Amino acid sequence: MGSIERIVSLILFGLIHVLAVSSIIGMVIFIVGVITGEDDGVERLLRAAAAAAGLLIYLGGRAYGLSIPDLMASALEVTKPLIKDLVSIVAPLASGSFVAFFCIQTMKRDSDIGARGIVLFSALVFTMFSDTYAVLASQATPNNLALALPNITFVLGVILYSIFSYKTGY
User: Fold this and answer.
1) Is residue 83 part of a domain?
2) pLDDT tens, N- to C-terminus, the chain (170 residues)
3) Which of 17, 54, 100, 116 has fewest C-beta within 10 Å?
4) What angle, 0 to 180 degrees and rounded to 10, lies between the N-to-C axes of helices 3-36 and 41-63?
5) How far is CA 76 from CA 10, 52, 69, 85, in A?
6) How many CA atoms lie within 13 A of 90 on its CB side?
């Protein structure tokens, strides 16, 4: 690899990490904002419990051996391009779009139960995304950016769906 390609790879590698870490921070800010945005102490407690439940759902699955990041990492090592593309691009993009769809539809309801659902679902997604980032980022190198595709396409799915679907004033 030439020096120009190496520099471009390093820049892309850095940008991918900045994007993923920014997304994780954004998810935390969103979850905390939804929890603390309520004046009623009982409702805040219920929303915090929903966040804890989202974390526990994912961690419980991990305790039983269900590891989405490990499944993605092993699937990315497959030599069949169609399977690799589905696992690294299509599935995370669709998942990100579904997350944005769910959150936007729930926000339209403007109810306490809807807010609790958003917090629960967002905490689950946050935990899964963070775990996936940790596993895949530890294996990715500037020479092999393919391992970053699941995180990139998930965030892209959330962003694109939100941009084209969310209307202010809900």
Assistant:
1) yes
2) 678 888 887 888 888 888 888 888 888 998 999 899 889 999 999 999 999 999 998 888 888 887 776 666 666 566 566 666 666 677 777 777 887 787 778 777 768 888 888 888 889 888 888 887 887 777 777 676 666 777 777 777 777 767 776 666 54
3) 17
4) 130
5) 21, 31, 11, 8
6) 7
Residue 170 within any structural domain of the chain: no
CA-nearest of 59, 121, 70 to 95 is: 121
Contact residues for 132 (Cβ-Cβ < 8 A; gap 6+): 68, 69, 72, 150, 151, 154
Q: Which two tokens stand for residue 61?
A: 């699955």
> Could you tell me the residue range of the domain that residue 97 belongs to?
3-165
| Domain presence at residue 23 | yes
As for how many domains the chain has, the answer is 1
Q: Cβ(152)–Cβ(86) under 8 Å? A: no
Q: Give the chain's largest Cα–Cα span.
A: 60
pTM of the model: 0.71
